[in-house]
Amino acid sequence: MTVEEETRFYRLSGELIQDERLLQMKNFIQHGRITTYDHCLSVARKAFSLKCSMKISCDEKALIRAALLHDYFLYDWHEYGDHLHGYHHPYIAARKADMDFALTATEKKAIMTHMWPLTLFHPPVSKVGWLLTLADKMVSTEETLFKRADSSLRLR
Ligand SMILES: [Fe+2]
Ligand SMILES: [Fe+2]
Prior knowledge:
Blueprint: H1 3-17, H2 20-23, E1 29-31, E2 34-35, H3 36-53, H4 60-69, H5 77-80, H6 85-101, H7 105-112, H8 127-146
Antiparallel strand pairs: 1-2
The chain binds fe (ii) ion (2 copies).
């Protein structure tokens, strides 16, 4: 991201990124040693950077909020013991995020469809949703392969 895009990213994510309820995601592991918080921050940055590099016009604030909250299910899915976690967690995350942060319809739908194509007949329906789905796949693949968090992505 350019310096201008970095500045815009942190301005748009400002209050949410420091919210103590969002910071609860630091207590849960997503992939390897990477917490769900680090994962969501990486996905938000990736989605925003894809949006900027591909010059896609969409609601930037909705994109960042949906990405930061897309895995806001607040449990360690490894201990949850539900092999259907992949199917269920988008709905759990959307419900909890909506209760705590009053999502817009676009944000909520983007979170609910971020696991597509797992949710076969429920694909994303907005540019925000497609960017989130793509960014999540890219970041999850990187994290699973390399099992590391990029220290440059941590909250400054
Ligand atoms: Fe997810
Ligand atoms: Fe994710």
